[in-house]
Amino acid sequence: MNLLLKVIPFIFSVVSLVLFSAFTSDILTKNQKIEAESAELIGGAIKVADDAASGGYIVSMNKPGEGMMFTGLHAANTLAIRYASLKVGLISVVVNNQPVKTINIHSSGDLKDSFLHAKINISIPAGAVLTVSLVTNNITVNIDQILVGDGNLELPPDIWNLPPLPVAAGPYPADWKGLSKLYTVPEWWRDAKFGAWAHWDPQSMPEDGDWYARGMYIQGSQQYNYQVQHFGYPSVYGYKDIAHNWVIDRWNPNALMKLYIQMGARYFMAMGAHHDNFDCFNSKYQPWNSVNVGPKVDIVGTWEKVARKYGMPFGIGFHDTPARTWGQFMPVRYTSDKSGPMKGVPYDALQTILDGYGKWSKQDISALAKPSILPTIMNGKDKWWKGMDPVDLYGLQHTMDLNEPRSLPGNDPLRSPFANQFMWRVDDAINKYHPDILYFDEHAGDSQVDLGVHMGLGFLAPQLAANYYNKSLRWNNGKMKVVLNLKGVGGRYNSFQDHPELLSFVKRSLVRSTEAIIEQEISAYPFQTEVTSGDWHYQKGQHYLDAGAVIRLLMENVSRNGSLLLNISMHGRGNLDPQAIRICTDVGAWLKINGEAVYRSRPFEVYGEDEVCYTRNNGNVYATLLDWNGGSITLKALHTGGSTLGKVSKVEMLGSNIKMNFVQNENGLTVTPEGEVQPLHGIADKHLASGVRVLRITDDKDWINDDDPGTSAPGWIRQCNLGTGDYNNDLTISDTPGDIWSCTFIGNNISIIAPREAGSGKIEIKVDGVIRGMADLSTAGAREAQQLVYKVSGLKLGKHILIIVNSGPGPVAIDAVDVQK
């Protein structure tokens, strides 16, 4: 008894301390938990007993309008609702009769004994009235409790109820016209010309080709049959299991990066997320990522560190855009086999966190009696699909119907709950890895249709651009050094058919890209073409582009003002085939000899002719012969009296010391080797070594073109393929007074070359910040091309900065600068 008397006060003090700690902790964190059954029930909602509920009861809502009203709340900025449901739907939240906020909910696996959290940011004043009610028909939602407070409430992000992503503060606005006035493609990218791509994620694991994560759910398709034969029916073993079992034990990022550099690539692109919706990085807003599932490695983060180590500009590719992922990849997963032993059994996309009971566990827990203990036993354990919810990978169940208007709720991927999540995931990667390039396998506009879905990022695209550009200024000391790639900007798959007035602005706001489709003519603005050496995701027995084909594609792009991004198909485990490695080394050996025709080059006045591609660099013209037979060749574009090429004084073949004899006349430049030219060394591809050669042509008209390295013209408009006698067949034009064109040069005298035409304005000329004079570009007569409109003489020999300002009142154009030393 004496012992008991001594123990009781001690127990009381401990209990009091625990209660006081919980109370003070609750006050300090400003978190407030309120049981649903303690609220005022409205609209016919009912209280139901549930042993797994925190207070022993839940409130069940079965019809729209049913709900509960909470009063006496603390001031807070975050609300979490603990709920159970078997279907996808919406509940509404109203604070003090303010505008309604809707919350997305999905299946917890059971209406009782299994709960999920929906969480939103919402301003709740002290003493507020909070109403929670059901919006969706034909669904039951049971509420256990609500939690209000500040911050994250010690809960993970609710990726299905994220707010719109705010655009980072900075000079770049979230509209195409404003972006086009400020953005200039950085010179490093324009000079790089050739990039390597590791298009690699869990879809590479089966080694059965691209789009596996979709094809495996289409009964009767080749990939479905492969899935059943090798892994099992997708109703049982789905894509989440492919991701879980993805092994990358043969991945050597250091060795691969060295190979890409040896290949001649000048930038590198990693896969951030494909259409499968799996993030290959340590993602804050997508639990299904390579750190949590499968390899347990931050793949993007590793690539980024290795790329920086070797001085390679680093990019991240995102294919998980709303139209592709939400619109095309997800809906096919909500079906089932139409025949066979699994007929009618839903594919695994409709499984829930509760269905993971005992799965992916090293310990057999099948004997555990109540699924309701799931939150307890899975905490920190290797069970229950490792605590993963399939809906985060597969999406909330939905359909896309092209026959229905996009304005119909749920029928526009850009206004889906996934769209906000996508924006936050991209922003998360930007913040973590500071990429030099962001690539989106998606259209910039929204006028195209593919596989029954309206494609494109639409109104999200300028928001993505402005957010990325503004944030990049912070890690690049205020300088614009990043590149954004988007598709469908004009061309064959123009996604601005509904808004053609935006097209000219979009072309100046980013680097447009296309998959395997090369521009048909020289482009006024730089572009990128993406190709793959084999299949985009590894395919057993795949065929490869040979090295000669890669160089042909590269030169066809570069000669048109483009760059080539090449995917080297990787095995699922991360290694390359010997044939792929040989192709890389052959391409690199060719570029080591002939790179001056590629890197830092710009297009010539015409891109090519009869198996010849032209480029310009360092005052020279380069002719890349794509199918040379070793004999004499006539280059028709290099005739006398042209607008760009002057009198030729020398012709050399790179990688050979054989003298090149030449004759230039009105029919072209005919070049004849004086002896037999030997194949290039170190190249296994015989045709590439002998038949793909480069001529360096020196002439006496080595002007700086208006778009050459060292020039800058933000907000100016580029025009090319003019046929009006201008140098290099192109111009840089401004119709806004105050616009600035600039360039650096080394010399002591310069002449400014520009066209004169009726209605043109004036330009002000500055050298090294000193105003040198004004030039009037107007004329009362016919247009005059290549006019010397102003000359600056007597400068100190050295490096100088030339600035030309549009002084109005009419438009002005810059053609070239002739520098003398």
Secondary structure elements and their pairing?
Blueprint lengths: L1 H28 L2 E4 L4 E3 L3 E4 L7 E5 L5 E4 L5 E10 L3 E7 L5 E5 L10 E9 L5 E5 L6 E9 L26 H7 L4 H6 L1 E5 L13 H4 L6 H9 L8 H6 L8 H11 L3 E7 L25 H11 L4 E5 L3 H8 L44 H4 L12 H5 L22 H17 L3 E7 L5 E2 L2 E2 L5 H16 L7 E5 L15 H5 L3 E5 L11 E6 L14 H12 L3 E6 L10 H17 L7 E8 L2 E6 L2 E6 L7 E3 L12 E6 L6 E6 L2 E6 L12 H6 L1 E7 L4 E2 L5 E2 L4 E4 L9 E5 L5 E8 L1 E8 L5 E6 L2 E7 L7 E9 L5 E11 L3 E3 L1 E5 L1
Parallel strand pairs: 12-13, 12-21, 13-14, 14-15, 15-18, 18-19, 19-20, 20-21
Antiparallel strand pairs: 1-11, 2-5, 3-4, 4-11, 5-10, 6-9, 6-11, 7-8, 7-10, 16-17, 22-23, 23-24, 24-29, 25-28, 26-29, 27-28, 30-41, 31-34, 32-33, 33-40, 34-39, 35-38, 35-41, 36-37, 36-39
CATH class category label of the domain at 32-149: Mainly Beta
In whole angstroms, how far apart are the ends?
108 Å
Instruction: State the fourth-level CATH superfamily of the domain at 32-149.
Output: Galactose-binding domain-like
Order of strands, main sheet, comes to 12-13-14-15-18-19-20-21
User: What's the CATH architecture of the domain at 32-149?
Assistant: Sandwich
What is the overall number of helices?
Answer: 17
Which fold name fills CATH's third level, the topology of the domain at 32-149? Jelly Rolls
Query: Helix content range of the residues, please?
Result: 10-25%
Poorly predicted residue ranges: 1-29, 363-383
Could you give a short account of the major beta sheet? Answer: 8 strands, parallel, barrel
Query: Can you give the mean pLDDT?
Result: 93
Instruction: Kindly estimate the percentage of residues that lie in beta strands according to DSSP.
Output: 25-35%
